[in-house]
Structures are given as structure tokens and as C-alpha cells.
Amino acid sequence: MARFNNYLIVLALVLPSITAKMSDIVEEPLSECGKHIGAHCGDEVMGRLKSGNETVISTSCCYKLLQTGYPCHTKLTLFILENNAELNWTEFFAKSDKIYHKCDVLTAPGNPEFLANCTESLGSDCGEEVYNKLILDKTISKHCCEKLVKTGEQCHAAMAKALIRIPEMRNVNALQLLKKNKKIFEHCLHVK
Ligand SMILES: *[C@@H]1O[C@H](CO)[C@@H](O)[C@H](O)[C@H]1NC(C)=O
Ligand SMILES: *[C@@H]1O[C@H](CO)[C@@H](O)[C@H](O)[C@H]1NC(C)=O
Ligand SMILES: *[C@@H]1O[C@H](CO)[C@@H](O)[C@H](O)[C@H]1NC(C)=O
Q1: Which keywords does UniProt give here (predicted)?
Q2: Engineering a disulfide at 32: which of 28, 47, 70, 162 sits with its beta carbon 3.0 to 4.6 angstroms away?
């Protein structure tokens, strides 16, 4: 996997290289999709779909669903339909889309322009340091801590949320990562 040269991955969401990776995922077999969503969250999504329970699924499973991605979500939905003859395809697909959309909203990193401003303000060198601290437990310099604090906690949180959605991050535990991300900010607040 190519080195992440920044934590400004957000911008990469619109870049062709990531789009290419997305298309690999489209080709992913159903069994892989099942592994990504996992038994626990798979059951939760399925339970909501079948019961018509309109409440949103848990935050942790929403992240898992977004990490699994829309192409996989569609594949899993199709699989259920093919194996449950009594279901109405139109209604089931609409419900399935609604669940995905609700999770998308719940876990959204925020306004793209705000994110672009955040990443620009942090800069790519410090972006990489924050990324390495978050994912690889490396150290973060005083200089980058100061820059991160200046960028602000709202930016820091939004960038992590955006990071969670990229394909390379799909197997990380989103809530744990966000917690760790918060700790990094707190650590930087106390670096003098
Ligand atoms: C929907 O699911 C949630 C969580 O499992 C549960 O608390 C709630 O009572 C359910 N609502 C209905 C209408 O079944
Ligand atoms: C499926 O649901 C749609 C929308 O509620 C309805 O218009 C359609 O007649 C249903 N189809 C079948 C085969 O029941
Ligand atoms: C982003 O930065 C530009 C230029 O500094 C500013 O005009 C704009 O309002 C900012 N947008 C957001 C959403 O923060």
C-alpha cells in the first residue's frame, strides 16, 4: 500500500486514485462483503430491514456499514432478497437505501469546504505526523501539536471521521479510533 503522505485524505476522496480503489471494491465477492460488515452489525442491519424498525442502527454499526461501503451494502441486500422470496424488492431496496443514508448522515465528517480548509491549515507534513500517531502510534512533534491545536478540535475530529471512510481504513474500529483521536488532541493541548 502506498505511503499516506497526509491525513488530508479527505481531499483524496475526489482524486482518481481513490476512485480506482473504490472500483476494486465493487468487484469484491459477497463473502468478502460479509466479512467486512461482520456478524454483529450484519445482524443488526438485517434485523432493521426485516422488521421495518425505522430507528437508526447503532453508531458503531453505522460506521461499519459506511466502511463496508455502498457497493457491498447493495450486494448484501440483493443476497437477502434472492433468498427470501416473500420480500417485496421495491420496498426492501428502498428501506435498505434509507438505512445506508441515515448512517451516512450520522457519520458524515461535515462540509467538504470546511474539511478542505482544515487539511490546508494543518498542512501535509503535520497531517502525516498526526496520521502516523493515530494509526502507527508514532510520536508527534511539538511543532505539529501546536499546529493541530491551532487548527482546532472540530477540524481534528472531522478529519478523523473522513479518514475512517477511506477503503484502507475499513477494518479499523471506528469508535476506538475516534477516541484515540480525541486523546491526541488532549495530549497536544498539554504540550508546552
Ligand atoms: C427498534 O430497535 C431498537 C433497538 O434495538 C429498539 O429499542 C426499539 O424498541 C425498536 N422499535 C420498534 C418499533 O421495534
Ligand atoms: C411492492 O411494493 C410497492 C410499493 O409499496 C407496490 O407498489 C408493489 O405493488 C409491490 N409489489 C408486489 C409484487 O407486491
Ligand atoms: C474556507 O476558507 C475560506 C478562505 O479562508 C473561507 O472564505 C471560507 O469561508 C472557509 N469555508 C468554511 C466552510 O470554513
Answers
A1: Signal
A2: 28
